[in-house]
């Protein structure tokens, strides 16, 4: 505790000197109840090798934490440190983060954002909570979530490839019209250069059971969550909670254009390309898919 006080006194004195103010170190020490002789001894103290390593690790933790937009907790930071050659446990990283006063952001409660439809046909749950296909484009899933702006709500429609948890297409709109879902599906087809994944899963919202939707997805196997059971679509629901928790909720979003800019920055510049994911063996979705393709190509060369 005394060391922390000494460090604070040193910092305040340095700040005062930089700003051209005069400050009484003796006065500060007296108010804080510590001795000047002890402070002088602390200033002359040479850090041990252990202290130096701890401080160096803390600097790396801070850098990784900042690069993740202050989203990563001890598990992910530990994996990155270990990947970069550090021998350190998750418990130690957690302890250092606590000392530094930093922690991962926590998720807000799940909110239902689409209404169930009275569509009379049988809506089958083909996916049945099997969230780990063994290759890309085996299963896509889609959902819609709201984003609050000063101008009013806007709506984000996303499509995820469950293999890598990559967001392969997204659309932002100011209505919940089915056309927004259709536009997102078309984007996904173009980006994946294909007409149909094995399965396309969604909830039972009116957009996903409309005649227009079924026509646009006629070459796909449609799978639907059970009524009032959002966990059947947990992966895409989790992503929508994630983008709000890690990014959108930290801004006062002005309007549709501002929301679009923020969503683009998160999905394209961070989530797909940089953010590591436990499901992807602590790789980003892009890296996970790239390594899968390289593995397939290498196996094909060996077989040939």
Write a concise synopsis of the structure shown.
The chain is of the alpha/beta class and 304 residues long. It has eleven helices and five strands.
Task: Please provide a written account of the structure.
- The protein is α/β, with parallel strands linked by helices and 304 residues long.
- The protein folds into two domains: 2-100, no CATH class; 139-293, Nucleotidyltransferase, domain 5 (2-Layer Sandwich), CATH 3.30.420.10.
- The protein is 47% helix and 11% strand.
- The protein is built from eleven helices and five strands; from the N terminus they run ααααααβββαβαβααα.
- The protein has helices at 2-18, 25-32, 36-44, 49-67, 74-83, 90-100, 178-192, 211-216, 234-246, 256-271, 285-303; strands spanning 139-147, 154-161, 166-173, 199-202, 221-224.
- The protein has a five-stranded mixed beta sheet.
- A hairpin with a 6-residue loop joins strand 1 and strand 2.
- Helix 1 packs antiparallel against helix 2 (25-32), helix 4 (49-67) packs across helix 6 and helix 5 (74-83) packs across helix 6 (90-100).
- It is elongated, with a radius of gyration of 26 Å.
- It starts with a helix and ends with a helix.
- Mean pLDDT is 83; it is low at 108-120.
Oligomeric status? single chain
Number of domains: 2
Please state the second-level CATH architecture of the largest domain.
2-Layer Sandwich
CATH class of the largest domain: Alpha Beta
Low-confidence stretches: 108-120
N-C termini distance: 66 Å
Helix content: 40-55%
With strands numbered from the N-terminus, the spatial order across the biggest sheet is 3-2-1-4-5
CATH topology of the largest domain: Nucleotidyltransferase, domain 5
Element-level helix/strand string: HHHHHHEEEHEHEHHH
* Average pLDDT number: 83
